[in-house]
Amino acid sequence: MAGLRDIDFRHHIPSVTFVTLALLVLGGLGSIAIYLGLYNIAADAPHYRFTYWLIENLRDRSIAARARPIAVPKDLADPRRISSGAGLYTEMCSGCHLAPGMEKTEISQGLYPHAPELSRASDHSPAQQFWIIKHGVKMTAMPAWGKTHDDRLIWDMVAFVQQLPKLSPAQYQEMTKSAPMDHDAMMQNMSAPQNAPLDESSPHSHADGGH
């Protein structure tokens, strides 16, 4: 213990000047790499493993933090809500996320990162799925559907996505056939209050599904 007390740790800590110069050098090298276009941004050239790990963790932690205060409606298992979501999913989502018994599409094969096949399973909670559908995800092909769809319809999509892994191809086809109406008709028949943007910070707007 006496030996440790005699050690001057200040001699083992890099000086402020050294740290500053190191950061300037790294920043300069990074700027040069960006200017020269050294990083291949093509969708058919996968990220480096560390880059993918960093982006994946950034995405997941960001979604989890922002979805935490969202209250999930109690009627997600309502057949009418699931049926509405089935029609919306088929037109808006299946081209990228596919569906039971559906072959890979040209779009799904060309995406990077690849869109998850939601008929297999999802690692996200209903609140997280709602946030993703509503706000989208940067640097992917996932759009922010909240720009054009109200919370009620987004929760309908969540309700269906929750059921999707349980469906066989035949069940999926039957469910989409019995959807109440096509997407364009559904959008045209939405009333003004349903189209009005909802305050996401209010738990009441989510608890009742936007009604």
How would you characterize this protein structure?
By secondary structure, this protein is mostly helical. Helix content is 55%, strand content 0%. The protein contains twelve helices and no strands. It has helices spanning 2-6, 16-36, 49-67, 79-92, 94-97, 106-110, 126-135, 151-163, 169-177, 183-188, 192-195, 203-207. The longest helix has 21 residues, at 16-36. Residues 191-199 and 201-211 have low confidence and may be disordered.
Layout of secondary structure:
Blueprint: H1 2-6, H2 16-36, H3 49-67, H4 79-92, H5 94-97, H6 106-110, H7 126-135, H8 151-163, H9 169-177, H10 183-188, H11 192-195, H12 203-207
Helix pairs in contact: 3-7, 4-8, 4-9, 7-8
